[in-house]
Amino acid sequence: MAKIQINYSPRAWQEDFHKHIEQKKRAILVLHRRAGKAQPLSAKVLTPNGLVFMGDIKLNDTVLTPKGTKAKVIGIFPQPKQQIYKIILQDGSQTRATAEHLWKIYFANKCEILNTLCLKTLLEQKIKIFIDTAIDFILYKKEIIKIEEDGFEVAQCILIDDPDHLYITDDFIVTHNTTAIVNQLQKDAMLVPDSQYAYICPYKDQAKRVAWDLFKKYGESIPNINFNSHDLTITYPTGSKILLLGSDNAHALRGIGLWGVALDEYAQQPAHLWGEIILPTLTDHKGYAIFLGTPQGKGAFYSIYKKAVEDEKWYAKILSVNDTKIFSPQEIEEIKKECSEDEFNQEWMCSFESSVQGAYYANEINTARTEGRLGIYPWDKNLPVHTVWDIGFSDDTSIGFFQVLHGQVKMIDYYENSGYDISHYIPVLKRKDYAYGHHFGPWDLMSKNFQTGKSTYEHALSLGIKFTIIPQTKLSFIERINAGKQLWSRLFININNCQNFIDTISLYRKKFDKERGEWKDTPVEDYTNHCADMFFYAALAERQMSGRIDVTWEKFLKEDSPKKSILQG
Fold it and tell me: What DSSP designation does 210 have?
């Protein structure tokens, strides 16, 4: 096969990454917040009702494409105050954009998508550049004659549901809406026949938004390449494939067989994903893994990074806003003014030390760490081990292993997995040498399965585990959180077996309402919910673990008398 030239010019740090991934099978890239391909709020966007300021564009608004079709705005991404550039065309028409905004341009008989700074460099080299303008939805190419700095402004990036992601801005100029990773996977798919690679985000639709257009952009020059937008699968002429996937359906990732994988925004992905699900998919082919994302406290991403810097077989790189040189020093100072010190350190300086924004148990975890309650606290063979469960099938199942003595609660072990029914978890318990006390589970274990006619409680009983049911409570969400906080005050955690618990519970956080600019009283709905629910059940079950039933439990029993015999059994 003739050599195929892919239009990709890596930056210095990207070249360094490509060089090292050829030699090492593991890499982690800690990156600052994506800069976005934004325009200032004062720029105008063409809608069916005429030109509208970018700052007035809202989610689900409609904009017009160069083809004359309508497209819905499916993403709004606010950007900090930054350097704005004015793009001036041959007829005097002009628009304004940030340094990283992407444009579809033509030069030297080529069509490319380049950012504003690249265009400015080409002009300085006396290269003629042309861009599309749309008059009555007919495209005309006009020459860009000048790009100049034009002050600092807050900016915004929009994502539209059009396959070309093109919309029309000031003076009817057409504008475009994890490059190193995309090109690494694509290169290997072309080099290794019949191989398979995966790009995984926390959600599949997120993987599509982030990377699908990049794969198409850099792969369009490859003959006989096939892009299946329904399955988000790319098939190469070598017979190799790249899959775009989401870890929200982690069970579907088992056993797929991979030669390489990229795990993007890994700080937002389940803690057990790597060791229990992804690593086994790489073993047969000695595949490589690339982790990348922005820090979110000392969770699973931090654990991977810590391992990487201590192991010479790994490639580890932190790229803060100072390292990538995307923003000027003046722009960085403006960014600092737009966010708190904690947020700047985490999002822009790639610090793992900052607390996760909106995390419910951030203070409690930090206090436990300061007081030495996160340490080596092994199993006491003289005490029973109580398990507390939150059970799912397509979702995660979380199991905590606890011992209680003299008012102190010790969490000695933790297990989580997804995609299995109760029959998977019973052997997990039996393989451990613990002498068990109670097995606590929520009230919905009593619900009948429509297919089998049996409840999970009955299924577990047939396998040798009798659950103590925690009745449904009337506690508000805030009361549930407070119950968890009270448990944290006397909790000791064995980090040898419970690191996944710490990584997961530290990311249990509030939703943020971007439109109102305030935190909501409800949590982000993701994999952390199951771990947090298990922890709440542990707070309710604590007194029974120590052999006492308090007034609260008696109150629950009276409210839920049909389950009284099960609870007391």
Answer: I
8 or 420, higher pLDDT: 420
Considering the chain, tell me which residue range(s) the CATH 2.170.16.10 domain(s) occupy. 39-176
CATH 3.30.420.280 range(s) for the chain read 362-568
Answer yes or no: is pLDDT of 176 > 50: no
pLDDT digits (tens, 9 = 90+) for 203-227: 888 888 778 878 887 888 888 999 9
Can you give the pLDDT at residue 109? 73
3-state secondary structure 88-149: EECCCCEEEEECCCEEEEEECCEEEEEEHHHHHHHHHCCCCEEEEEEECCEEEEEEEEEEEE
Cβ within 8 Å of residue 526, ≥6 positions away? 202, 248, 268
> Three-class SS string for 124-135?
HCCCCEEEEEEE
Per-residue pLDDT tens digits for 363-389 = 898 899 889 999 998 899 999 999 999
Q: Considering the chain, tell me which residue range(s) the CATH 3.40.50.300 domain(s) occupy.
A: 12-33+180-347
- Asked if residues 144 and 88 have their Cβ atoms less than 8 Å apart, the reply is yes
Q: Which residues contact 551 (CB under 8 A, 6 or more apart)?
A: none
**Number of Cβ atoms within 10 Å of the Cβ of 221:** 11
- Return d(Cα 103, Cα 141) in angstroms, integer: 13
Which band of pLDDT confidence, cut at 50, 70 and 90, is reported for residue 354? confident
- Which CATH architecture fits 12-33+180-347? 3-Layer(aba) Sandwich (3.40)
Nearest to 414, CA basis, from 430, 405, 431, 402: 402
Model confidence pLDDT, tens digit, residues 491-510:
999 999 998 899 889 889 88
Q: Which CATH class is domain 39-176?
A: mainly beta
Average pLDDT of every residue of the chain = 82
Are 206 and 128 in contact, with CB atoms under 8 Å apart?
no
Nearest to 556 by CA among 475, 479, 441, 447: 475
Q: How many C-beta atoms lie closer than 10 Å to residue 340's C-beta?
A: 11
- Contact, 129 vs 122, CB < 8 A? yes
* 262 or 68, higher pLDDT: 262
Q: Which fold has domain 362-568?
A: Nucleotidyltransferase; domain 5 (3.30.420)
What is the Cα–Cα distance from 555 to 569, expressed in whole angstroms?
Answer: 17
Q: How far apart are CA 61 and CA 71, in angstroms?
A: 8
C-beta separation of 261 from 278 below 8 A: yes
CB 469 within 8 A of CB 495: no
Confidence at 556, pLDDT banded by 50, 70, 90: very low
Angstrom distance (rounded) from CA 223 to CA 185: 17
CB 166 within 8 A of CB 70: no
Does residue 456 have a pLDDT over 50?
yes
Q: Give the Cα separation of 36 and 158 in Å (integer).
A: 9
